[in-house]
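In the laboratory, one determines a bound structure by crystallizing the protein with its ligand and collecting diffraction data. In a computational setting the workflow is compressed into a single prediction: the sequence and the ligand go in, and a structural description comes out. We illustrate the idea with guanosine-5'-monophosphate.
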Amino acid sequence: MTLLLLAGAGAWWLLLYALISPVVFRLAILAADDYGLFMLPTLLRLRAAMRERQIVVYYQPKISLRTNAVTGVEALARWLHPERGLLLPAQWLPPSDIKWLERQFGEYVLDAAISQAREWERAGTPVVVSVNVSPWLFVEEQLPRRIAAALERHGLPPSLLVVELTEAALALSGSGETVARELAEIGVGLAIDDFGIGHSSMERLLRLPVRELKIDRRFVAGLRSGSRECAILRAALSLREDIGLSVVAEGVEAPETLELLRAAGCDAAQGFLLARPCPPDAVTDRLRTPLRLIASA
Ligand code: G
Ligand code: MN
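The predicted complex, in C-alpha cell form:
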C-alpha cells in the first residue's frame, strides 16, 4: 500500500529503491518522514561525500570581549558539493533516527577537528577547538573512550578540546551526566550550547563540570536593556560568579548587541559580526596576527 502511495506521488525512483533493497526502503521512509523525499539521494550520497572528503570542517572564532583575542574556535561541518556548491548542515544533516550515519558523521567531524587542533598546536598557535556532539551520540557510554582514543591518536592535549552539548541532551537521560563527568576526568571541556531555550534545571547544570555556557542566538538577537533576554543573560553571568564558567554569546550580528554584551560583562562572543565560519587557513591567519580592535560601528 505504502509502495503504491509513494509511486502515486510520483516517486517512481523510490519504488525502484524499494524493490532493490528493503534496507534502502526503510531508509527512504525515514528520510521521507522527516525531511521530504528530496533528502533521500542526498543522504545516500553523504557517506560517499565523507569518503571523498567533500565534507569539510570550517571554524568560527570566538572573541574575548575583554582582550579581543580569539579564545577558541567552533568546528562546523560544510559540504563542498561538486555541483551544488557550499551546503550548510541543515540541508543534509542525517536525521537522528539513521543512527549509523549520524555516528559516522559525528566521528568524522570529531576526528577532523582534533587533527586540525593538533596542527595549530604544532604550528605554535594552539587554540581550543569546540565540537558539537548530537544528544544521541553524547549519551552513548563509549563516547569518552572514543574521544580519548582520538586525542591519543593525534597527540592532542585534552585541554584543547571542548565538547558542545545542547541543554536538551542533558535532559535526555541520566547517562549524560556520567559521560560529562568522564569527559572532565580526561580533561576535555564541556560547553552547554543554545543555552536559554532548553529545559535544563539550574540545579542540574551546577552539578556538572561545565566550562562554558553559550547563550542561544535567538536570545542574543533580542537583547535590549531591560528585556527578558537581558534577565537570562544576567542569570548566566551570575552562574559564572558561582562556579567559574565562561559565558559566550552566540550569533552576534549587530554592533549594538556587542556593546550591550560588553557592558553587561559577558566573557566572549561569536557571530557573523566578528567572524564567519571559515576554512582553517583563514583562522590560522587570524591566530597569527596580533590583537586587533573589533570595529564597534
Ligand atoms: O547551535 P550552534 O551554535 O552549534 O549553531 C552553529 C550554527 O550557527 C552554524 O551553522 C553557524 O554557521 C551559525 N551561525 C554562526 N554565527 C551566526 C550568526 O551570527 N548568525 C546566524 N544567523 N547564524 C550564525
Ligand atoms: Mn554549537
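The beta strands are 55-64, 70-81, 85-87, 129-132, 161-166, 189-195, 212-215, 246-249, 268-269. Keep in mind that any predicted model is a hypothesis to be tested, not a measurement.
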